[in-house]
Write a structure and sequence with these properties.
The protein has 377 residues and is mainly alpha-helical. Helix content is 59%, strand content 4%. The structure holds protoporphyrin IX containing FE and iron/sulfur cluster (2 copies).
């Protein structure tokens, strides 16, 4: 039943993407660059963040003033600040669409589970980066975020109180609180890079860049709002005065309306359940037993073509001593093999085979795929 629903979703997604080809053309269709689009916004965040970093001062007295200086006095400062904020929102939208796309097109299971798991971790990191980013402004909203988050963290049994103390960086709000938010904001941004390395680990030739035309369009989609609707701060935080309410950002601060309307433990439990479901998702469908590619020792001449062509890095070459002429032998890592058949096509010596699939079947399947105008995605 679940598999049937997924199959229908896949058909719908592909038809929708074919239809969007009419609008964007196949070459510039953003859905074919579903992983590259968040990547572009991430690098925009790094570059604009670096510029903001040059003028930002993480202390209770200066943070708000330095952010206002960037916005109002620094040439193009409001554009850089706006681009940083809007790129963060755009990245969240792009990441969610990307996750839905890989889910709907059944590209999240089996050998892709590492990409899925690292993706879940990337979303968690993005949330922490977003929340700490809002604290850095040090306006009334920032103050409320620190108070509510510290309170919510304290409710977690056992690890909660030390976690809250770590987050506030002490028992009460001081300059060190902002220093901690700054550290988490920048430090976890770098963690994204490590997670992305994991994310791409099992995808051989991932599409990480958008074409120039699409890139310019996407940049315009954040520069124009930055110029037309400049980002501004709220009232400065005053530690003796707890604000009654604050504006929510639905991309990164959606936890806070939840914290104010229900006990924190319920919110943490809901988050825990959602994360557990997301982590279970790649293993909900059990496929038929695997039959990975097999190398026929006598035929392999060690030409390395199969290892170069395998999109899943499932083949590596080892030195060979049992043959007078051939110096290398191809070895398949069974757990990585996606049974795609590319190596069978690459080998001119009939030295690698998929035992459960007939080569005619594979060639017919490749022919079908080539007939479909599905683009790079
Ligand atoms: C910082 C955020 C992210 C970036 C920059 C990113 C980037 C990418 C890129 C460039 C690819 C290769 C796409 C291709 O070659 O067609 C990819 C693949 C993939 N991503 Fe992400 N991703 C992010 C977040 C996520 C999230 C949140 C999930 C899901 C929870 C996810 C799941 C996957 C999966 C399963 C694949 C493999 C798809 C395939 O092999 O076709 N990613 N990602
Ligand atoms: S392509 Fe064929 S002959 Fe060449 S290394 Fe691979 S299995 Fe051996
Ligand atoms: S069938 Fe061959 S090319 Fe495809 S994943 Fe397995 S080893 Fe790699």
């Amino acid at each position: 039943m679940y598999k049937k629903i997924l199959d229908q979703l896949q058909i719908l997604t592909i038809s929708f993407e074919k239809w969007t080809n009419k609008v964007f053309s196949q070459q510039y269709n953003p859905f074919y660059y579903h992983g590259a689009v968040p990547n572009l916004f991430m690098w925009t965040l790094f570059v604009t963040g670096l510029l903001l970093f040059a003028y930002y001062q993480p202390t209770l007295d200066s943070a708000y003033i330095s952010v206002n200086y960037i916005s109002n006095k620094l040439p193009f400062g409001n554009i850089v600040r706006g681009m940083h904020r809007y790129a963060a929102d755009a990245m969240m939208i792009a990441v969610l669409l990307h996750a839905l796309r890989v889910y709907f097109t059944d590209r999240y299971r089996k050998y892709r589970w590492i990409a899925w798991y690292s993706g879940v971790a990337l979303i968690g990191c993005m949330l922490v980066i977003g929340i700490t980013g809002y604290i850095l402004v040090w306006d009334e909203r920032s103050y409320m975020i620190v108070l509510m988050m510290a309170d919510a963290l304290k409710q977690i049994p056992a690890i909660g109180p030390p976690l809250a103390e770590f987050f506030v960086n002490g028992e009460m709000i001081t300059h060190y609180t902002l220093a901690m938010s700054f550290f988490l904001h920048v430090g976890i941004s770098f963690l994204l890079l490590y997670l992305l390395w994991l994310h791409y680990l099992r995808i051989s030739r991932p599409v990480t860049d958008v074409p120039l035309g699409l890139g310019l369009l996407l940049m315009a989609s954040i520069i124009i709002p930055a110029a037309v609707i400049p980002v501004s701060s709220g009232k400065p935080a005053v530690l003796i005065q707890v604000p009654a309410e604050f504006p929510t950002d639905w991309f990164y601060l959606w936890l806070f309306p939840m914290f104010s309307s229900m006990p924190a433990m319920i919110v943490w439990t809901v988050l825990f359940i959602i994360t557990t479901i997301l982590l279970a998702v790649p293993f909900l469908i059990i496929d038929e037993p695997k039959s990975p590619a097999q190398v026929l020792l006598d035929n392999c001449v060690g030409c390395t073509l199969c290892a170069k062509d395998c999109p899943y890095e499932a083949i590596y070459m080892v030195p060979r001593t049992d043959h007078p002429k051939f110096k290398q032998l191809a070895i398949v890592i069974d757990a990585r093999c996606a049974e795609c058949g590319l190596c069978v096509g690459a080998c001119a010596f009939k030295a690698i085979d998929l035992p459960q699939k007939h080569s005619k079947e594979i060639i017919a399947k490749i022919g079908d795929v080539l007939k479909e105008p599905v683009g790079v995605g």
